[in-house]
Amino acid sequence: MKRSAAAAGVALVLAGCAARIPAPIESQLSVPAQWRSQAAGMEKAALEREWWQAYGDPALSDLVARVLRHNTDVRLAQLRVAEFRARLAAADANRAPTLGATLTPVRTRTLAYNGVPAITNLFAGEFQAAYEIDLWGRLAHASEAAAQSLAAERANADAAQLSVAALAANGYLQLRGLDAQLDLARATLDLREQSRRLAQRQFETGYTSRLEWLQAQAEYEAAAEQVPQLLRQISEQENALSLLAGSSPGPIARGKTLDELSPPVIPVGLPSTLLQRRPDIARAGHGVAAAKSGVQATSEQLLPTLRLTATGGVQSTDFSKFLHDPAFLWRVGAGLAAPVWDGGRVQAQTDAAAAQRDQSLVAYEQTVRVALAEVENSLSALQRLREQTVQNDARRATAAETLRIARNRYRNGYASYLEELDAQRTLFNADVTRLQLRSRLLGASVDLYRALGGGWAGD
C-alpha cells in the first residue's frame, strides 16, 4: 500500500508538470425562444432530407439529384471527408503497439590484436515490439481531436450538399420565371401587333393621325425587343445550371410551369432546433470540440512518456547454423522520458491552441447568429411577398379593367390611342411584377429550406 500511495503521489506531481491551459472565454450566445415573424406559426414536423420533392416537379427533382451526384464542390467535400478519416486512423494508430522485423547479414574485415586482418560474418534476424502507455491521455486527446475534425468535415459535406441543392432549386425556379416572362413577352407582342394594324388601318382611312400609328409601331418594336433579351437570359441560366451539375453547357429539362408551382408548407420548428439541424452549425460545434481536445493534447507534451519495448531474434556467424541452429537472443525494457527544459516552447504552443479554441467558440456563436438571422429574413420575405402578391392581384385587376374601357373608348372614337397605350403599359408592368413576385416567393421558400438546415440533421 505504501508503494501504491507513493506511485500515486508521483503521478500527481508529474501531472502538475503539464503546461498551463488558459481559461476559455465566456460564451455570449443567447438563442430566442420564438421567431419574430408571424409566419413562424407553421407546423413543427421534421424536415425531409429531400425537401425539393415537396414542390412536386419531377424535372426539378431530377436536376437536384444530378447536381448532388456530379457537382464539383460536393465531390471535393466528400474527398476531404476521406482525408480526415485517414487522419483519424493515423491518430488511433499512435495508440496501438508497433511491430517490426529486420534481417541484417553483415560481413566485416578488421585487424586482430596481432595486426593480422580477420574476416567475420554475422547473420542476425530480429523482431521489435514497442508500446507507449498513455498515462495522461495525450494520445486519447489527439484521437478525440481527429474524431471531432472528421465529424466537422462530414457536417461540411452535408453543408455543401444543402448549399448546391438550394442553388439548383433556386436556379431552376428562376429559369421557369424567365420562361413565363418570355411567354408574356410573346403574348404582349401579339397584342401590340393587333394594335399596330388597327392604328395603321385607321390612319390609312384618315380616321386618326400618323402620330398614333407611329406610337403603336414604337410600342410593337419595344415589345419585340424584349424577346431576344429574355432568350439570352434563359440561355445563360441554362448554362449556369449545367455548370452547377458538373456538365457542359446545354438545355435544361422543364416540368411544371411557374403558375403550377407553389411554395409548400415548411415545418419551421423552434429556434433551438437549428443547433441540431443545420450542418454548418454542427461543423462549427465539432470544430470547438476538436480545438478543446487539441489544447489538452498540446499541454500534455511536457508530461513524461512511458514506452515499453521488447526485442527478440536469432544470430549466428555461420549461415547454415543461422538457418538450422541459431542462437536465440531477447531483450525487454521500459523507458520513461520527460522534457527537462524546452525554453517555453510547449507553453507557447498551448497558448496558441487555447487562442484557436476561443476563436472557434466565437466563430460558432457567429454561425448560430447568422443562421437565426437567415431564418428570420426568409420567414419575413415569405410573409411580405404574400402580402405584396395580394396587392399586385388587385392592381392587375384594376389595370385590366382600365385597358378594357380605354380600348372601347378608342375604337368608338371617344379617346385617343394614348389612353389605350398607357393602359397597356400599366397592365404589362403589373403582369411582369406578378411573375417576378411568384418567382421570388418560390425562391424565398427555397431560402427558408436552406436556412432551416434542409433535413440534413443527424446524418
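The record above closes out task 2.4. Task 2.5 opens with a second protein, given below.
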Amino acid sequence: MWGAIGLVIVIVVVIVVVSQTSSKTTKGVHYTPKPVSATVLHDLTSVPTSTYNTVGTGIAGAIDAPTVESAQKTLMIDGKPAVFGLFGEFCPYCAAERWAIITSLARFGTFTGLKTMQSSPVDVFPRTQTFTFNTAKYTSPYITARLLELYGQDNATGVHSVINTPTKQEVDLIKKFDSGSSSTSSGTIPFSDWGNKVVFSGASYSPDPLQTLSRTTIAAGLKDPSNAVTKLIIGASNYMSAAVCYIDGGKPGSVCSSSGVQAAAKALKIKV
C-alpha cells in the first residue's frame, strides 16, 4: 500500500482508543472548511465516461488494487448494499483517497454538504487539498454509504482528536477487514469496506503528485485522461466503481458495463 495512518483499536462497548504521535507545537494549523464551489463540485462529480474508459486501471505500479474478500455476507445498511469508510481530516493519505471515493460514488448517487479540507501542515505531504465527509450526505437508489471522519484536524500542538464514534457494527468491520500495515497496528486509515466484498486498507496511491496543486486545478484536470494525477484518481475510482457494481447487482448498467469498470473488474477477477 502507498501509505496509511496506523491505528491500535481497543473496543469498550463502541469506544475506539487510538495511539497518536504528537508533532511539535505549530501555530496556524487549523483550516476552516468551506462549501465546495459549484465549479469544483461539477468537475468532481461529472467526470466524463470517456475519461474513465481511457484511464482504465491507471498507471501500472502506481495504484494498489484492493483486496477481494470471499464467502462474506454482503454488508447491508438501510436495506441496501453498503460502503463503510473510515478517515481523518488531518490525514494526507485520506486526503488523496477521498478524490477517488467521491468521483466513484458520484456515478451511483448524489453528494450534498461536501466541504473543503486540507491535510495537516505538520504531517507528511502537508496541506494536500481535499474534502471532508463530516458534514456530507450521500443518497443513492443503489447503495448506502457511511463515510466516517473518525479524526478531526491537528490542533496547535499537532494532536488530532476523535470527532465521531463508530457504531459497534462498524467497529466489528474494522476489526475484521482492516488488515493494517504493520504488526504493531490492528488497522489503518484510510479504510473502506465495499459491501464486505472489496476492501481498501490504506491509500490507493501516493498523495505526493497532489502536492502544491490547488483543489480547482486537480478537479479541472479530471476531464483529461492524459493528466498524471487524473490517472491516479480515476484509476482508483474505476476499482471502486467495480466494487459497487459487484455488490449492487450491476446497476446502473451504463456505469457497470463501461470499459473502464470492466477493466477494473477483470483485474480484480470479479464479474460485474
